[in-house]
Amino acid sequence: MTSHSHHKPFAKGYNAQRGAVLAISLLILLVMTMIGVASMGTTTLQEKMANNNTQRQIAFQATEAALRAGETFLAANILSVADLVTNFNATSPVAGLYSQRAPVVGVAAHPLPSTTNIFDDAGWLVAGDAVEVTTLTTVSQKPRYIIEYMGRAGRPLSNYNRNNSDPRPYAFQITAIGWGEGATPKARYLLQSSFRMPLL
Q: Would strands 144-152 and 97-99 be described as parallel, antiparallel, or unpaired?
C-alpha cells in the first residue's frame, strides 16, 4: 500500500512578514533605548543644576554673613571721630580697613591698593588684605569683607545747623565675598552695602 504524505505549504509571504515584525521590533527597541538614554542625561543635568543652585545659595548666605559682620564691627567699634582716625589711617593701618578720604584734616588716607582686584579670588585670600569671618564652618573658604571709609555723606545745605556744625553722617562701603562648599568651589558671591552713621 502506497502512502502519500501531504504537507500544506506555508502561506505566501509568511517569511517576509516575520522579517518585517523583527525589523519593527528592533526599531521600537532602539527608540526606547534612545529615550532611556536621553532621560538619564536629563536627570543628570537636572541634578547638576540643582547642585549649582544649592552652592550659589550657600555662597550668597556666606556673603551676607560677612556683610553683617562688617556692619557689626562698625556699629560696635567706630563710635567717634577718634575711633575713625585710629582704624582708618595710613600710618598704622588695620587689616581689611581702608579709607578713600582722609579721616580728618592732617591724617593721610589709606586707600585700597590699586593692585587689589575685588573680582579676583586670589586678591581676597592674601593675608591681611581682608577680614575673615570665622563663624562659618561648612564652607570651603571663610567669607571675607573689607570696609572703606568714603567720606561724609552729602546733604542739602538747608540741613546744616545755625552754628555751622556739620550734621552729615560718615559713610562707609562694605564689600564682602563668600564661596560655596567643596575643595575647589566654583560658586561665589560678591556683595556691597553702604553704611552711614553719625560719630561723636
A: parallel
In the numeric block, which cell numbers belong to residue 144?
571675607
Residue 129, amino acid: D
What is the per-residue pLDDT for 24? 83
- Domain-embedded: residue 108: yes
Q: How many structural domains compose the chain?
A: 1
Per-state percent for the chain, helix, strand, coil, to nearest 5: 40, 15, 45
- pLDDT, tens digit (0-9, with 9 covering 90-100), for 168-181: 899 999 999 999 88
Decide if 171 is inside a domain: yes
Query: Domain for residue 17, yes or no?
Result: no
Which tops the pLDDT comparison, 38 or 74?
A: 74
Residues 39-70: pLDDT tens digits?
Answer: 676 666 666 666 678 888 989 999 999 999 99
Kindly state the average pLDDT of the residues 99-126: 85
Q: Is residue 30 part of a domain?
A: no
Domain that holds residue 78: 56-197
In 78-155, which residue ranges form alpha helices assigned H by DSSP? Answer: 81-87, 121-124
How many alpha carbons lie under 13 Å from residue 119 in its C-beta half-sphere? Answer: 0
Q: Transcribe 167-199 into DSSP letters.
A: -PPEEEEEEEEEE-SSSS---EEEEEEEEEE--
Asked whether the beta carbons of 174 and 145 are under 8 A apart, the reply is yes
141, 188 contact by CB (below 8 A): no
Is 198:75 a contact under the CB 8 Å cutoff?
no
